[in-house]
Amino acid sequence: MNRGIFIALLSIFFAQGLKIPLHYLKTRKVKPALFFQTGGMPSSHSAGVASLTTFVALKRGLSTIDFALSFIFGLIVMYDAQGIRRQTGELTLKVNSLDELVNKAHRHESMEFEEKQPERLKEMLGHKPEEVVGGAVFGVVTGLIGYLLSKKR
């Protein structure tokens, strides 16, 4: 397998795994399902692209088109993770709370109300800026370690 892809995937895997102990330290609750969820600290999106970009920079050099592509792609992914996806998550929180508001409003009316239960929308979609930075730092470290280990072979 391509070492860059392997290191990026490994970084994503470990970043997802880190979410569980970090959540425990913050809340004192074990939540293994975090491994399969988006959002949270650290951003696995940022970790993946940062580790790949770091690996490419060290392996091929900063002046190559490979690095340029990886760097710009990484910036777009990280911007999207904390921008558009985070806003979508915050909007989803409001939409999910509308159901409760509608139920309260209809309890006080005499008209017929047929309740249809939609699936609850996923609320943790994006990242706070510090989660993106945390993922990027984790990714740089992972990319550096991956490069050093591949250099020894």
TrEMBL record:
The chain crosses the membrane at residues 65-84, 132-150. Keywords: Membrane, Transmembrane, Transmembrane helix. It comes from the Bacteria. InterPro entries: DUF212. The keyword Membrane applies. It holds the Pfam family DUF212. This is Divergent PAP2 family protein. The lineage of its organism: Bacteria, Bacillati, Bacillota, Bacilli, Bacillales.
